[in-house]
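Practice set, problem 2.
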Amino acid sequence: MTGTGLRLVRVTDTPAPSYRVMVVDDHPMWRDAVARDLAEAGHEVVATAGEGRAAVRIAAAARPEVAVVDLQLPDISGVEVTRLLAAADPPVRVLVLSASGERQDVLDAVKVGATGYLLKSAGREEFLDAVRRTGEGDAVFTPRLAGLVLGEYRRLASAPSRPDDDAPRLTQREREVLRLVAKGLTYRQIAERLVLSHRTVQNHVQNTLGKLQLHNRVELVRYAIEKGLDRDG
């Protein structure tokens, strides 16, 4: 518009969070393209690596918050890289980005601590959303893979579970958050449901992880399913 010298500015929108990200892939062109997409989206690409051992060594100095890791690496596997990064101090949240959607590959990555698993056939926006959600601590999977992981957890949960007598005492709020985690809600959705801040939800999840001696949200989902918290009633 002209003549008034005025324009409307939306003040309710908040910028998407950005993270320190490492990219681990042995294909230089793919690695560079992923790093470029991340940088254009506002993330800080603190390191890239084409081999697993180099990635683990570099991560100790670069201190990424999120690592995008391919499974097929020339020295050690991406599963082993994921295990080492997830067990680091501080731990790195790992989003596996792989061409493989094989059941065993997915479950192996999740069991060692991957926060998410995305196929390389995913679109750019889906990938960037997955990185953001991984940084926030959400478990991120394409729908087919999410069903596979939850199905495996429910299969394991069908075996007799350990008694609750020795389970650490959770507060009522921690139990509420855990129930919604089990139902697959993101941190932001949980915050809206319980009228809490996103940071408060994260704190409740971290406290619960500590009490239960679990390492990541994926393990927390499994625990909650074992206890039947994903079912209403």
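Problem 2, part (b): a different protein.
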Amino acid sequence: MTNANDKFSPAELKAADSLFQEPVSFMLSVADLSQLPPDSGLPEIAFCGRSNVGKSSLINALFHQKKLAKTSNTPGRTQQLNYFNLNNKLYLVDLPGYGYAEAPEKTVSRWQKLIFDYLRGRVNLSRIFLLIDSRHGLKKNDLEIMETLDKAAVTYQLILTKIDKISTSEYQIRQQNLLTEIKKHAAAYPEIIAVSSLKNRGLDQLRAEIASLI
């Protein structure tokens, strides 16, 4: 089990960066599975994580943009599945954050059901990128969704976010904890990627990982 931040060659990193500078657009928001776009044959990836883990900021940074995905300090802002189209080569889906306490219980339950039904039933879903806030590490609800993904046999890869907010020693502890945990999960990809959207760290590796799925 390894950290994937030194996995790709300079040529692969450059090609992936070029890919993520191609036209990308917001496609649609999905509040019900009946609204999902038909299977186009394009690979589909999804970003998932606790509320305020930094999904929207990471999506913006990946595409060298600032306002593609709406960011907010308010937990639970993303309430639907938000689809983005990368030049008809890839669909990226921003899933509603889980684990927040701000929204009413019925709303939380509805959002969570939408997430889990999507994860279990989307046949062209290539990989889930499960974001973990490096300041807090794995929480109970992270482990619960990992178990759900294991049962659904959906491949997922852990992304350690906001690494600029912690010390080197804290980072090493978080990294080792994640690598130890994923050994217990059948559907977990055996590498993690550590990123900082603010400091532009690890984004080239994540772009290359996503590009490898196309």
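Answer key, part (b): The longest strand covers residues 125-133. Strands lie at 2-3, 24-30, 44-49, 81-86, 90-94, 125-133, 156-161, 191-194.
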